[in-house]
Amino acid sequence: MSPLTTLRTAGELVRFSHTVFALPFALIAALAAAGGLPAWRVLGWILVAMVGARTAAMAFNRLADHAIDAANPRTAGRPLPTGRLSRGFAWGLVVAGGAVLVGAAWRLNPLCLALSPLALVWVLGYSYSKRFLALSHLWLGLGLGIAPVGAWLAVRGSFALSPIVLALAVTCWVAGFDVLYALQDEAFDRAHGLHSLPARLGAARAIAVARVLHAGAAVAFAAFAALQHGGWGLWAGVLAAAVLLVWQHSLIAPGRLERLDTAFFTANGALSLLMLALYVLDMMIAA
Predict the structure, then answer these.
(1) Quick one: three-class SS letters along 34-46?
(2) Is 256 strand, coil or helix?
(3) Bridge partners of 256?
């Protein structure tokens, strides 16, 4: 396998495209903490930390789920089950990603360094949560919700209420769309003793839980805007997020999952990027 092919396959393994879910909220928190653009050095190390955490978490998840992915027709074509990448290579990504996260935290401030191992343990631990916890979706949500808190700490070096509220919003948002994504594996999870909400509750009730989570996310996004005394851009982002969440749920119903990818990737990717873009535009106009 050529180096370029290996790099492309590694990108498929860790799904770098999914960074669009957490990274915009980390940047929003960093901008809010700085009251504008943070120092380029700080912004750069935040990005490095995000890449490291993402790489370690996804590679470890693929290692933990190797046998499960191989048994599931939907995931059997992933790099590890097909042998396109070795487990040793994946372990190398875990170690490298973890080291990058801790190293970036060290370059930011002592509090980030002290908390980085806890963040790493949490995002790695998610990979086994589905074996025993039907609410593993919330575990994943908090794994991404850590990002805005970490970015705030990177800029200010201390906790505050605003990033915690934003973390709550991200946690509910991610958990909700992860419940919807798990609908496609409802029968497989139930047959293999995996504890997703669709497997535990059935599709209809799982969708109802996802709606409650997304309603909570919309409220928490609004609370963050209020705490930040947000301008038109932040409030427009909150409104856009609410509209996209409603649209997402209009695409999905029990037995009607053909537009799941649109709901998962398009609606949620647009939500995070639009909130960031509107916030940045507002700050640029106000400057």
Answers:
(1) HCCCCCHHHHHHH
(2) strand
(3) 253
Tokens of 284: 């640029």
Backbone Cα Rg of the chain: 19
Using CA atoms, how far apart are residues 267 and 242, in angstroms rounded to an integer?
11
Question: How buried is 35 (Cβ within 10 angstroms: 0-12 exposed, 13-18 middle, 19+ buried)?
Answer: exposed
User: Can you tell me whether residue 71 is helix, strand or coil?
Assistant: helix
Taking alpha carbons only, the member of 26, 224, 59 closest to residue 144 is: 26
Which residues, 6 or more positions from 264, have their beta carbon under 8 angstroms from its beta carbon? 177, 180, 181
SS3 214: helix
Interatomic CA distance for residues 37 and 89, integer angstroms:
37
| Domains observed in the chain | 3-286 (1.10.357.140)
Spell out the per-residue pLDDT of the chain, length 287, in tens. Answer: 666 777 777 777 777 666 778 999 999 999 999 999 999 999 999 999 999 999 999 999 999 999 999 999 999 999 999 999 999 999 999 999 999 999 999 999 999 999 999 999 999 999 999 999 999 999 999 999 999 999 999 999 999 999 999 999 999 999 999 999 999 999 999 999 999 999 999 999 999 999 999 999 999 999 999 999 989 999 999 999 999 999 999 999 888 888 888 777 888 989 999 999 999 999 988 86
The pTM assigned to this predicted structure is: 0.96
DSSP string, 143-212: HHHHHHHHHHHHHHSS--HHHHHHHHHHHHHHHHHHHHHGGGGHHHHHHTT---HHHHH-HHHHHHHHHH
Residues 32, 153 contacting (CB under 8 angstroms): no
| 275, HSE (Cβ side, Cα atoms, 13 Å) | 35
